[in-house]
Amino acid sequence: MRELDQLMLRYLDREWVTDSEAGRAVFLQLLDTEDDKLWRWFMGYEAIPDVDIASLIQRIRDLPP
Predict the structure, then answer these.
(1) Interatomic CA distance for residues 62 and 55, integer angstroms
(2) Angle at Cα 63 formed by Cα 60 and Cα 42, nearest 5°?
(3) What's the first-to-final CA gap in the chain, in angstroms?
(4) In terms of Cα–Cα distance, which of 15, 40, 37, 39 is closest to 27?
(5) Which residues contact 55 (CB under 8 A, 6 or more apart)?
(6) What is the band of 61 on the pLDDT scale with cuts at 50, 70, 90?
(7) Cβ count near 23 (within 10 Å)
(8) pTM for the whole thing?
(9) What is the pLDDT of residue 25?
(10) At 58, is the pLDDT very low, low, confident or very high (cuts 50, 70, 90)?
(11) Residue 39 contacts by C-beta under 8 Å, 6 or more apart in sequence?
(12) pLDDT over threshold 90, residue 65
């Protein structure tokens, strides 16, 4: 999904370099998640079962476009 790509690129462009190794590991977990599930998580349609993933998704959502 193009929208998900844009969200993920925000993180890569603005946060990846300065994020902790743990933060990067969580991002890599996101990349292994199916697009439809990611979309539901980013849009708030489905609860995110992992606190670290939920935190990262919120950080990404809070990044300016």
Answers:
(1) 11
(2) 35
(3) 17
(4) 15
(5) 26
(6) very high
(7) 17
(8) 0.91
(9) 98
(10) very high
(11) 1, 3, 4, 45
(12) no
Taking only the tens place, the pLDDT of each residue in 2-45 is: 999 999 999 999 999 999 999 999 999 999 999 999 999 999 99
Yes or no: say if 46 and 40 are a contact pair by the CB < 8 Å rule: yes
What Cα–Cα distance (Å) separates residue 51 from each residue in 5, 6, 29, 64? Answer: 22, 23, 13, 22
Tokens encoding 60: 């990404």
For the purposes of burial, counting CB atoms within 10 Å of the CB of 40, is it exposed (0-12), middle (13-18) or buried (19 or more)?
A: middle
